[in-house]
Design goal:
By secondary structure, this protein is mainly alpha-helical.
């Protein structure tokens, strides 16, 4: 009988039963084909207590747990990255607006910084401001300086420049206004910051995020020439706003076109004035009893911590040193491909990095 039952089982593969009790029989589960079940299930992951045994897990695919985190195509991960970047921009934007408030309060309104606040400014400070403005870019001091032998700038490398400017002034008869005699350190510091501000113009007009700023970029840069970071800090915050997709790209103004097309000239002018300002602070007006380098260094220390204007210029230099590499990095695509690596490596050098950016700008039609 046993032999006959075994023969029938091989000929007719019917489910066999395992007798668990005299009254109840349970069919043995036969293995199914792999094609009868999906390779991966979109169901939720099994709980720890119900995880399949290693033997069964080897025979079937586990459910992908990450499939329930978002829609297909991995959009969830990109959205998370975008939200994270937006949060960082919001924090940075808030920091910049806080810096703007601190800048105005500390340097203009509060009486705790060195020098006089704007509401208590002295007549001497006003006179110095007028004198520094008249000596803008050291044009009047150079025109009125005379021949190199009598020049008040004893710096051999710059004597040809002094001679050229003096000759131009003599030929044109330019001596309409006498140059105010101020300390050369004060004149050098003032013109250095103003020349650096001039260099920022083509950078702002080629900024890829300038469309976030809804106002006139011409006016912003014009006010920046007089009040420096009072207007640059808000621009740095506004350019972090989300773009207006419905708005057409901004049209470059006439001033912007001139600044961008003449970027090398702007870079040369600003760079030379910065060099001249440093030389003037060290050696200018040597015949006016302002002392040597040691005495001028002592004057710098007393000047910065007694005059609000000089103290503000130190903050301007610090902020410009931060904003310059930041803006250049965001607009490195505007640089010629052959000079990208060079500009990217020197962008942290004050003034020098910005001059390099202006000289290496890609030619633009607008």
């Amino acid at each position: 009988m046993a032999m006959a039952a075994r023969t029938l089982a091989l000929a007719f593969p019917l489910p066999l039963c395992a007798v668990s009790s005299p009254r109840r029989a349970t069919p043995l589960a036969l293995p199914r084909r792999g094609a009868a079940r999906p390779l991966a299930s979109l169901a939720q992951c099994p709980a720890r207590g119900h995880s399949p045994s290693p033997r069964r897990a080897a025979g079937r695919a586990l459910a992908p747990c990450a499939a329930t985190r978002g829609s297909g195509g991995g959009g969830g991960g990109g959205e998370f990255a975008s939200d994270d970047g937006g949060g960082a921009r919001a924090l940075l934007r808030a920091t910049l607006w806080g810096a703007e408030a601190a800048y105005i309060l500390w340097l203009f309104l509060l009486p705790y910084a060195p020098g006089d606040p704007v509401w208590g400014i002295s007549q001497a400070t006003i006179s110095d401001l007028i004198g520094l403005s008249l000596n803008f870019f050291l044009i009047l001091p150079l025109l009125n300086s005379g021949t190199p032998r009598h020049s008040n700038l004893k710096f051999t490398a710059l004597r040809p420049l002094i001679l050229l400017v003096s000759l131009l002034g003599s030929v044109a008869g330019v001596h309409l206004l006498e140059s105010p005699v101020l300390h050369p350190v004060a004149e050098g510091l003032f013109n250095f910051v103003i020349a650096w501000t001039l260099l920022f113009a083509p950078l702002l007009f080629t900024d890829s995020r300038r469309d976030r700023f809804k106002g006139s970029l011409d006016l912003l840069w014009g006010f920046q020439m007089f009040l420096t970071n009072t207007f640059l800090i808000p621009y740095m915050a506004i350019r972090l706003n989300d773009p207006d997709k419905d708005k057409s790209p901004p049209q470059t103004s006439k001033l912007g076109s001139v600044m961008v097309r003449g970027a090398p000239i702007v870079g040369l002018t600003g760079g030379l004035v910065c060099i001249l300002s440093i030389a003037w602070a060290l050696f200018g007006r040597a015949d006016a009893s302002f002392g040597g380098i040691a005495e001028r260094w002592q004057y710098v220390q007393s000047y910065v911590f007694s005059e609000r204007l000089a103290y503000a210029f130190l903050w301007d230099i610090l902020l410009y040193s931060i904003f310059q590499p930041w803006l250049i990095a965001d607009n490195i695509q505007n640089v010629k491909a052959s000079a990208t690596e060079f500009v990217n490596s020197v962008r942290f050098l004050p003034v020098i990095g910005l001059v390099a950016y202006l000289f290496c700008l890609e030619d633009r039609d607008d």
